[in-house]
């Protein structure tokens, strides 16, 4: 990769020019600002691109073996761009060869310059080319980083999410059932898909069935299939979703919604890998890995008797517990900007960020609907936003400043101080020294403020 980090090193410029005199003249004029590399023919030029990775190139189209023709120059252009698509090539042509210059640009050159050389003008052109090159590379790195930091489409670098990624890595190499629990919208299905994708069954199907969304009367045949004539209307034999997952993964979403009789049937499948279609007598062996999800507390449901305890223990050999979004330190802005990028480019709207108030609003909202809620609010905001930045109103979030408004400055300040101190104290488990350090004040000052504002000491 290109090293653009050391700003102390001069950026690399390659001059491709067959006339030695011009080459030397250019080198002298530009070596103060750039690390100037030179090449006299195509092979040398390509070699330099491979070895030195210059960001910008000046290319005299007339090259040996026939310096009066331009073929060799065009060949060099295409070979260099094939090696470095982001390379900025400034073509240098003789007076009266504008058509060559334009053709070069249509072939991917960045700009052109007509001889005789005026160094000052060339310098301006060069500095613009380098500037653009840096921006493009920075953007490419940023995109790459966002990609690297996501785990199978899951965005988040909080310790809570790192633990989830670690669990996924561990369980995906095994065949044990996994129960994924967590509030609605926390990404349970994404986790199930990631486990499948990383498992040995990745070439098999990932079959989803939402036990809560299918009417009770249909769920049994959906899961287990039926034989022809099993009931009125069963004109043909049908295979169920469990069979469909043969060799792959079966994801039972909202498993807590299964009725007791179906819980029994499912348990049998989990114990023996065998099912019977509705109305059938034949036992069918199915090799499918089972993953399940629930936002109900199944352990409690099992204790209370609404969910079979034996099934709970079968299905929950491993439990992955999704953290609510509000507990993922630092993930909200990361997710928000990734989602904004996604929806802004989908709708081709040039929205490039959030106002500071919107960011504050995002951070202080409690996110009962977790990532799905964040996704929906941003989708909506991208459509509604009138400016280039998203506001709390676009997100339908109350501005965190709203509750400080309307009053006098002194009251607003005290309300804000009280809020902030209470929050920091809570995050430091009531430890005054730590809270004071976080707030940038001394411990006695904090104590005084707490008394003045009526904040109870834990
Ligand atoms: N970490 C994440 N990064 C990016 N997108 C996410 C993340 N977590 C969830 N999402 C997105 O949020 C939405 C909800 O995720 P998902 O359907 O997996 O949640 P769930 O826990 O199954 O929700 P529910 O309980 O409501 O079924 C999806 O569109 C998903 O792509
Ligand atoms: Mg779901």
Key traits:
458 residues, binds magnesium ion, 18 helices, five-stranded parallel β-sheet, 47% helix, binds adenosine-5'-triphosphate, alpha/beta
Structural account:
By secondary structure, the chain is an alpha/beta fold. Helix content is 47%, strand content 13%. It has 18 helices and 16 strands. It has helices at 20-30, 42-52, 71-83, 98-106, 119-149, 159-172, 188-197, 216-224, 241-244, 260-272, 298-304, 309-315, 331-346, 356-364, 370-384, 409-427, 432-439, 443-453, and strands at residues 12-16, 35-39, 56-60, 88-93, 111-114, 178-181, 206-210, 225-226, 238-239, 249-253, 274-275, 284-285, 289-294, 318-321, 353-354, 389-390. The chain has a 5-stranded parallel β-sheet with strand order 2-1-3-4-5, sandwiched between helices. A 5-stranded parallel β-sheet has the order 7-10-13-6-14. Strand 4, helix 4 and strand 5 (111-114) form a beta-alpha-beta unit. Helix 10 packs across helix 12. The two termini are 54 Å apart.
> Which geometry do the CA atoms define?
flat
Terminal CA distance: 54 Å
Q: Calculate the mean pLDDT score and round it.
A: 89
What does the main sheet amount to?
5 strands, parallel
Global structural class: alpha/beta
Instruction: Extract low-pLDDT stretches.
Output: 1-7
Query: What's the tally of helices?
Result: 18
């Amino acid at each position: 990769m290109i090293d653009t980090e050391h700003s102390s090193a001069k950026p690399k410029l390659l001059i491709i020019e067959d006339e030695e005199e011009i080459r030397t003249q250019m080198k002298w004029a530009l070596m103060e600002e750039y690390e100037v590399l030179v090449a006299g023919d195509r092979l040398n030029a390509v070699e330099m691109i491979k070895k030195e990775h210059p960001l910008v190139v000046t290319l005299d189209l007339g090259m040996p073996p026939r310096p009066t023709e331009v073929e060799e120059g065009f060949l060099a252009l295409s070979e260099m761009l094939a090696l470095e698509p982001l390379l900025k090539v400034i073509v240098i042509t003789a007076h009266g060869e504008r058509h060559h210059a334009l053709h070069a640009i249509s072939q991917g050159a960045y700009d052109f310059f007509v001889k005789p050389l005026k160094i000052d003008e060339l310098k301006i052109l060069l500095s613009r080319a380098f500037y653009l090159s840096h921006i493009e590379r920075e953007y490419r790195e940023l995109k790459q980083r966002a990609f690297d930091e996501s785990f199978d489409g899951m965005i988040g670098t909080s310790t809570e999410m790192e633990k989830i990624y670690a669990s996924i890595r561990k369980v995906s190499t095994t065949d044990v059932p996994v129960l994924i629990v967590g509030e609605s919208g926390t990404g349970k299905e994404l986790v199930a898909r990631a486990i499948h994708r990383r498992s040995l069954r990745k070439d098999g199907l990932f079959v989803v069935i939402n036990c809560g969304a299918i009417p009770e009367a249909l769920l049994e045949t959906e899961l287990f299939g039926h034989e022809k004539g099993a009931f009125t209307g069963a004109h043909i034999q049908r295979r169920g979703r469990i069979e469909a997952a043969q060799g792959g993964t079966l994801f039972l979403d909202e498993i807590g919604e299964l009725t007791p009789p179906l819980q029994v049937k499912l348990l049998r499948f989990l114990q023996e890998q065998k099912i019977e279609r509705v109305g059938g007598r034949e036992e069918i062996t199915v090799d499918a890995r089972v993953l399940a999800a629930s936002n109900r507390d199944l352990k409690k449901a099992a204790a209370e008797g609404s969910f079979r305890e034996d099934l709970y223990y079968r299905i929950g050999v491993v439990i992955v517990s999704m953290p609510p979004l509000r507990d993922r330190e630092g993930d909200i802005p990361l997710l928000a900007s990734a989602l904004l990028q996604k929806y802004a480019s989908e709708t081709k709207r040039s929205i490039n960020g959030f106002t500071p108030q919107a960011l504050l609003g995002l951070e202080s909202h409690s996110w009962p609907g977790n990532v799905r809620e964040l996704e929906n609010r941003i989708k909506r905001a991208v459509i509604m936003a009138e400016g280039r930045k998203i506001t709390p109103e676009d997100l339908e979030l109350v501005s965190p400043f709203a509750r400080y408004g309307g009053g006098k400055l002194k009251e607003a300040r005290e309300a804000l101080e009280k809020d902030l101190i209470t929050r920091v104290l809570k995050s430091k488990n009531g430890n005054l020294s730590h809270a004071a350090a976080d707030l940038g004040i001394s411990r006695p000052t904090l104590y005084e403020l707490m008394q003045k504002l009526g904040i109870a000491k834990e």
